[in-house]
Amino acid sequence: MTSGKKHFCIGILVYPGCLRSGAVVPHDVFSIANTLMQARPAAQRIALQAVWLSARGHSSESVNGLSFQTEALQGRKIDALMLPGIDHQSAYDISERLDMLLPEQAALRDYLQRDRLLLSSCSATCLLAQTGLLDGRRTTTSWWLGAYFRQRYPLVKLEAEELIVQDGNLVSSGGLASYLDLALWLVGHFGGEALRQLCAKVLVVDANRNSQAPYVASAMVQNQGHAITERARRWLNQRLDRPWTMAELAQHCHTSQRTLLRRFQEALGRSPVQYAQQLRVERAKALLETTQLSLEDITARCGYQDVSTFSKTFKRWAQVTPKDYRSRFGLRR
To answer: How far apart are the first and last CA of the chain?
Structure first.
């Protein structure tokens, strides 16, 4: 919690083609936090004010029919700046939109010259990376853009499975709805952990989730890369319930094991074995949530012989603690 100061102004940058919900919902989160603050003694209260800002000096910005009353970002005194995601249907849409957001990129460079707090959600991390200010730093983005992001911004340290990543004054969040998590992060940053937890309960949001891994559907990941990788992925998807070797996979792809490993690392940031483990965990989660199959049957359908071994793999890749794992799926110790 930030001490001393009682009033915090949070800017939300509105720009052409941004996600409207990413610009509106944080307002509501901060309003709820302010209401909850009224139950505290006056000396312990803080106030969170959200304002819509424009990098183009406009007094209003229209985004897909929704009008925002904005102030100029340049010169505006704020304690943090939030970037809503870029509205898009594919990774290629993002590339085109970035070319049209030069005023926003220039304004972000100017804003960060003073080392101020900046938060980007979802695909907005691409807008920040486009400025070069993320080079050498840790970040996250929507899980389905991971491969695209790595190819376009190789100097950025992407942690695509993380829900929120903080690197100094830069904080980023994952997929679309994670702007809720980002707004709650700010509530906690300025108002303390107790306020963040209480605000999350009012919003009916899991305040303790920290990974995008449970939501990843690998078939939707954009720009997976080289044809060798795509051929290997299709082969692995068809053999989740069977054992296989790297030699067999390389032979199917008509390449060497060394080349296969390199292609996978370039496109997905992991090895074929790690990729197959993630796919099996995804299948196991779906079976646990939608069927009454025993753990032994699910283990077999995911290509493992030993329940204990697969349980360890599941818990590691699903990013849950053993307690969460048992209670979430009704499994015994």
So the answer is: 38
* Per-residue model confidence as pLDDT tens digits over 209-255: 777 755 555 544 544 456 678 778 778 878 888 889 999 999 998 88
Q: Rg of the chain's alpha carbons, rounded to an integer?
A: 22
Name 2's Cβ contacts closer than 8 Å, sequence gap at least 6. Answer: 8, 189, 190
Show the domain range for 209: 7-215
pLDDT tens, residue by residue, 151-170: 889 999 988 878 899 999 99
In a domain, 329, yes or no: no
Instruction: Mark whether 204 and 237 lie in a shared domain.
Output: no
Domain shared by 137 and 260, yes or no: no
Nearest CA to 293 among 330, 239, 243, 240? 330
How many domains in the chain?
2
Q: Tokens 């070797």 label which residue?
A: 245
The answer to whether the Cα torsion of 206, 211, 217, 221 is positive or negative is: positive
Strands (E), the chain: 7-13, 47-54, 60-63, 66-69, 71-72, 80-83, 117-121, 138-139, 157-158, 164-167, 170-173
